[in-house]
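Bumping with the actual sequence this time:
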Amino acid sequence: MIVVLSFTVACCKCGDDVYLAGPDVPEKRAIAFYAAQYGDYPFEDIKIGSGRIAQPGRKFFFQIDAQDEKGNSLGSGTLTFLDPPFPTERWGYGIDSGEVPSEFLGAIRGMREGGSRKITLPRPTSVNAHTDFVDTNGHTVAHLSGDGATLLTVTLDHMCSPRFCSSKSYSFPGPTTVRRAREVSCR
């Protein structure tokens, strides 16, 4: 009879330098980054916000309403996502970054907290294009139209600088090492 004993030992590295901990960048730099990285997509500001400017290294909280060109709903609700996505290869599993089409990131350039915007995104041209707006809980909030342009009305409610803790677990007999991550704060 073989007896297998299993136990887990974990250590945790937490602190400001773990992930996505950077100061706000100047407005022109944030706008230029999004335009260069994701493209220059048209938008119309409904209300200009007075808060911090959208930039990488943040967790975003949007209200989103998507419709096709005929006015049919393509989804609506609260959308949360991390930009850039959480690198599971480095920090382990446990954090869902959410996913948005890259064109959306190009269209939020220069947007501030509290602002609302109408955005028109073209029909995806690539077969492998990401077409869903997926929140950090893994739920699809909306998607892009496959037949034509998608009309979005979005409000940037809030964004914050998330801090994460990454832990390493060892199981015996093994060697099995598993990295897990969790969000510890978002300011």
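The tokens above came from a reply further down the thread. Helices lie at 27-38, 88-91, 102-107.
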